[in-house]
Design goal:
This protein is 39% helix and 18% strand. The chain is built from eight helices and twelve strands. The chain is globular. It is an alpha/beta fold. The relative contact order is 0.13.
Length: 267
């Protein structure tokens, strides 16, 4: 049976690079950058878009958000039409469900605007709203250490004190990248019945910040890493690890953490 062909837009980024690697045994992979140019005509079964700016770029370039995101969405839609692509998967953000975060508002506007264009487009699409992810990068790039868990692992090796700005009870997501890859594989093989399917990944890997840090520390300790992690304005921590995720989810978390730790160690 002929393998399906997946075009990955954003193939050089944190998510895209990993998708290209982890899906290459089961699918034909076509790497795309934001120019959206194919070297030759291909039959593409799915276009997976995981390309977009981070929250820092959005904040800095707030005045460009609507124009740039509109142009980007139109470009993707035209690319699908020109290449007869029937299925589009767009990696959005669960932050679009929030309307009261002023700092993230430019980032929220980017994804909200693109979702609006895609929703109107006459093409079958799945909009997957992602939470914060973490995991082993395929390449060592500076911006890949902005993720909460990734940054703690890196600073643990540098033996630096780590100050956490979040309050201990602040809710934070930390979805392992390997879990998302497996989830995406499943979605690729499920036919889109309605023209648009929206998936909010905001139920799993949701932690209090203090619980997440305790879980991270437990994994770091397996590698004899004992970082000094402090909350700002709180002098002492006394947290006990509870059953905050089920065994199956913990296995994903553990495997991704160990891969990340190994990657940091070799860099």
């Amino acid at each position: 049976m002929e393998l399906k062909t997946l075009a990955i837009l954003g193939s050089s980024g944190f998510i895209g690079n990993r998708l290209c690697k982890d899906l290459s045994n089961e699918y034909k992979i076509v790497r795309l950058n934001r120019n959206l140019k194919l070297k030759k005509k291909l039959k593409i079964n799915h276009l997976i878009c995981c390309s977009g700016p981070n929250k820092f770029w959005c904040k800095k370039n707030e005045k460009k958000i609507l124009r740039n995101s509109s142009n980007f969405a139109k470009k993707i839609i035209n690319f699908c039409k020109e290449n007869d692509i029937k299925n589009l998967i767009y990696c959005s953000s669960i932050q679009v469900l929030k309307k009261n975060n002023n700092y993230l508002m430019p980032y929220i506007k980017w994804h909200t605007n693109i979702e609006k264009y895609f929703y109107k487009a006459k093409i079958k699409k799945k909009i997957i709203r992602l939470p914060n992810l973490f995991g082993k990068p395929e390449k060592n790039r500076k911006d890949l250490w902005n993720f909460f868990v990734n940054s703690i692992v890196k600073f643990s090796y540098l033996k630096k004190n780590i100050k956490v700005k979040n309050k201990p009870n602040q809710i934070i997501f930390a979805m392992p990248l390997n879990f998302f890859v497996k989830f995406l594989k499943k979605e690729i093989n499920i036919k889109i019945i309605n023209e648009t399917k929206i998936i909010n990944l905001n139920k799993k890997f949701k932690f209090r910040t203090d619980d997440l840090i305790t879980l991270i520390e437990k994994n770091l300790k397996r590698k004899n890493l004992v970082p000094k992690i402090l909350f700002e304005n709180i002098l002492q921590r006394k947290f006990v690890l509870k059953n905050i995720i089920n065994k199956k989810e913990y296995l994903f978390f553990y495997e991704e953490m160990q891969s990340l730790i190994k990657f940091v160690k070799t860099k």
